[in-house]
Design goal:
The chain has 10 helices and 2 strands; from the N terminus they run H-H-H-H-H-H-E-H-H-H-H-E. The protein is mainly α. It has a two-stranded parallel sheet. Mean pLDDT is 87; it is low at 182-186.
Length: 196
């Protein structure tokens, strides 16, 4: 009985640390015997709590290092969070967080309700550094069209973003006068509604 009380206490500490995003305390609780597969009375696992709070480093630790199982709802929550972070970073020109979201599994082909991908968003906002990264380092297709039929190049042109246009034409070799094949629209994955 004393052992059960100790285990319950350490598992409670695990859930508290997960909710706060304190990876050090999460690791300590696991080392002290907390079960990474434990389920609270409300049916939530530590992995799901981490996903719901956007603590991707803890999700990764519990899943990859502790072997916690990920159900479909948790996987979707993680995916939605990463795509949201990707879109937010593309919108404000934050290359560090664009890279972080992608390295942590954000789907590059995700599109918002308007068919806008991270590349569309970055091009529309004039963030040439992100456009360059997505196209050159991540090989993102530049001819993807949003729901209005606009490519990232067209959005940059409409908004008069010279640095983005220069990248497309001078660095990438894009010729706006040559029609390119339309990409397969089914490749885009709709993400949850967002303001981006």
């Amino acid at each position: 009985e004393a052992e059960e009380i100790i285990r319950a206490s350490v598992t409670r500490r695990l859930f508290e640390a997960v909710a706060k995003g304190d990876k050090t305390k999460v690791k300590k609780a696991i080392q002290e015997g907390a079960d990474p597969h434990a389920v609270r009375a409300d049916g939530m696992t530590a992995l799901r709590v981490a996903a719901d709070n956007g603590h991707i480093d803890i999700v990764r630790y519990l899943f990859m290092e502790c072997g916690a199982s990920m159900d479909d709802a948790t996987a979707k929550r993680v995916s939605d969070f990463l795509v949201k972070k990707l879109f937010e970073a593309a919108c404000i020109g934050d290359l560090t967080n664009v890279k972080w979201a992608i390295e942590n599994g954000a789907n590059l082909l995700a599109a918002n309700d308007d068919g806008m991908t991270a590349l569309h968003i970055a091009a529309e906002k004039g963030h040439a550094n992100i456009v360059r990264y997505l196209v050159l380092e991540r090989e993102f297709p530049i001819n993807v069209k949003n729901d209005e039929g606009k490519t990232p190049y067209q959005l940059a042109a409409w908004n008069q973003h010279g640095a983005v246009l220069s990248f497309f034409i001078l660095e990438y070799g894009f010729n706006p006068n040559v029609a390119e094949e339309d990409p397969v629209r089914e490749d885009l994955v709709r993400s949850p509604s967002s303001e981006f």
